[in-house]
């Protein structure tokens, strides 16, 4: 974004300089009048550049604020999802422990039954 702003400002300045040079070359008026015109055009150009700079600065500030707002929302959403996932992992861990304990108990019973049946 910064390079676009720089290019825009450079374009305005370069355009002003070229316009002033062409105006001087083709001016059918006195040197004093031409210098006054150049000075006036230079001030106009400077005013336009300042206005455009302020507008771009304001627009980029709004874009920055919007991006920060979106990132904060994304961060909040992500933290919420992480919390939900941690709860699910804890829940699944407990279910896994219970299933392991149940399987272990059933296996012991099966082994004991097999041992008693084999005797």
Give an overview of the whole structure.
This protein has helices at residues 2-25, 31-118. The model has no long low-confidence stretch (mean pLDDT 86). The protein is built from 2 helices and no strands. The protein has 119 residues and is an all-alpha fold.
- Unreliable stretches (pLDDT < 50, length at least 5) are none
Provide a count of the helices: 2
**DSSP helix fraction:** over 70%
How would you classify the helix and strand content by structural class? mainly alpha
N-to-C SSE series? HH
Q: What's the end-to-end separation, in Å?
A: 85 Å
Largest sheet: none
Beta-strand segment tally: 0
- Taking Cα atoms only, what radius of gyration do you get, to the nearest Å? 39 Å
Average pLDDT, rounded to a whole number, is: 86
The backbone outline, from C-alpha atoms, is: rod-shaped
Tell me the strand percentage band: under 5%
How is this fold's topology laid out?
Blueprint (H helix, E strand, L loop, with lengths): L1 H24 L5 H88 L1
């Amino acid at each position: 974004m910064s390079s676009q702003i720089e290019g825009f400002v450079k374009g305005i300045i370069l355009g002003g300089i070229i316009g002033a040079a062409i105006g001087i070359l083709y001016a059918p008026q006195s040197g004093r009048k031409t210098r006054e015109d150049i000075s006036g055009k230079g001030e106009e150009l400077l005013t336009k550049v300042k206005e455009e700079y302020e507008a771009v600065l304001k627009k980029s500030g709004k874009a920055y604020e919007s991006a920060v707002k979106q990132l904060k929302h994304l961060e909040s959403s992500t933290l919420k999802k992480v919390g939900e996932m941690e709860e699910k992992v804890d829940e699944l861990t407990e279910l896994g422990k219970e299933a392991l304990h149940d399987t272990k108990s059933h296996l012991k019973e099966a082994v004991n039954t097999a041992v008693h049946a084999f005797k």
